[in-house]
């Protein structure tokens, strides 16, 4: 599957997003992820998805349901296989330390959205420990500022890993799912794969437009409130749809 995707990039710039999505579906299946869906992704081209971030599993989980590019910090590109797969998925890399490139990087994302491409942002700026949703960084919402972005569709998305082997996830198991701190990737991944089937929930909340909010901070607060509230509900055992096979 991966070599085929690489070949299509030679034949067609950007490759075929459906092949990347198919790869993510296969990866989720091989990792024992059972995905339940609430709502549906917006079907209009050029959607800016805003999601909480817990684990590297979020990439294949969301990628299996949405044909979209991710926004990630530039360091991810150097994370071995993870970085290679991120680049393969047309990730937009952000150099957070180089403020001189902020406008250029924002314009690259705006252009992708304006051309009908979907983009996924993790506005916490890093992955959480899975206990709760961390505060969002308002600077990451600069993409939807300005008249050219007023009609962009923004859809909040909640991800939650709620069960392992059919039993509710305990706080003690969360570090085996969430990748936090200085944990090495390979040992963490081996531990995670030994857990057994993991029940994963995705909630696609109602989409909004940037023009509906006074500024990016108001939009950020709306997205955080919606996502954090949904996450708490899911981790307490509320509303679990049937898994997607």
Automatic annotation (TrEMBL):
Transmembrane annotation, as ranges: none
Pathway(s) annotated for this protein in UniProt: Lipid metabolism
Keyword Amino-acid biosynthesis among UniProt keywords: no
SUPFAM superfamilies cross-referenced by the UniProt entry: Glycerol-3-phosphate (1)-acyltransferase
Keyword Lipid biosynthesis set for record: yes
Alphabetized InterPro entries for the sequence: Plipid/glycerol_acylTrfase
Domain named Phospholipid/glycerol acyltransferase: residues: 47-162
GO molecular function: 1-acylglycerol-3-phosphate O-acyltransferase activity
Official protein name in the record: 1-acyl-sn-glycerol-3-phosphate acyltransferase
Species annotation: Glacieibacterium arshaanense
